[in-house]
Amino acid sequence: MNVKKGTFVVLASGRGSNFQAILDRVSDGYIPAVCTALITDNPLAHAIERARAAGIPGEVVSFKSFSDKQAYETALIATIQKYNPDLVVLAGYMRILGSEIVRKYSGRMVNIHPSLLPSFTGLHAQEQAVNYGVKVAGCTVHFVTEDMDAGPVIIQRTVPVFENDDGDILSDRILVEEHKAFPQAIRLFFQGRLTIEGRVVKIDTNQAPSPGRDD
């Protein structure tokens, strides 16, 4: 019997390295779902080439093409709805989403941030961490809420911070962990193992992980 897989769309603005990491884990069966579209606000985003190479439709909804943010987000919602996804994945999407779209996909939209939230929200989180002098940094996958970088945490992974680090060096080290954490969080979502209680995400541990998988 064929089992219908869940679907997700990815929103990205730039090079799409997390997008590629996610596609790779779809391809090898780790993520039990199908990516049905890439949507970008940047017509020059390298993520478009990654989508093309994977045979995934790429949609450009350029912010500059609209008179204001409301008009842009109306078009963005319409584009997402074309694919009726179970999950919306923000993988390097560099715009702050408005309340309407966040509410519409509440509990079904995830983002990754290059810090151990709630520390170092917003832009240049890696540089913020270095300047603050922390000894441990990392990344956070979280559900998206109306408050920036403040949604319920799904997964966090850590890296050390060394005295000779700058923002770029730390960014590269964190990115390695992002490429592990994001697919893992998406996998857990499609396995039905995530429950949001208040601002706490509980992970069902009763389902045994597949052998050799980094659950």
From TrEMBL:
<feature type="domain" description="Formyl transferase N-terminal">
    <location>
        <begin position="8"/>
        <end position="186"/>
    </location>
</feature>
<dbReference type="InterPro" id="IPR002376">
    <property type="entry name" value="Formyl_transf_N"/>
</dbReference>
<comment type="pathway">
    <text>Purine metabolism; IMP biosynthesis via de novo pathway; N(2)-formyl-N(1)-(5-phospho-D-ribosyl)glycinamide from N(1)-(5-phospho-D-ribosyl)glycinamide (10-formyl THF route): step 1/1.</text>
</comment>
<dbReference type="InterPro" id="IPR036477">
    <property type="entry name" value="Formyl_transf_N_sf"/>
</dbReference>
<keyword id="KW-0658">Purine biosynthesis</keyword>
<dbReference type="Pfam" id="PF00551">
    <property type="entry name" value="Formyl_trans_N"/>
</dbReference>
<keyword id="KW-0808">Transferase</keyword>
<dbReference type="InterPro" id="IPR004607">
    <property type="entry name" value="GART"/>
</dbReference>
<protein>
    <recommendedName>
        <fullName>phosphoribosylglycinamide formyltransferase 1</fullName>
        <ecNumber>2.1.2.2</ecNumber>
    </recommendedName>
</protein>
<dbReference type="GO" id="GO:0006189">
    <property type="term" value="P:'de novo' IMP biosynthetic process"/>
</dbReference>
<comment type="similarity">
    <text>Belongs to the GART family.</text>
</comment>
<dbReference type="GO" id="GO:0005829">
    <property type="term" value="C:cytosol"/>
</dbReference>
<dbReference type="InterPro" id="IPR001555">
    <property type="entry name" value="GART_AS"/>
</dbReference>
<dbReference type="GO" id="GO:0004644">
    <property type="term" value="F:phosphoribosylglycinamide formyltransferase activity"/>
</dbReference>
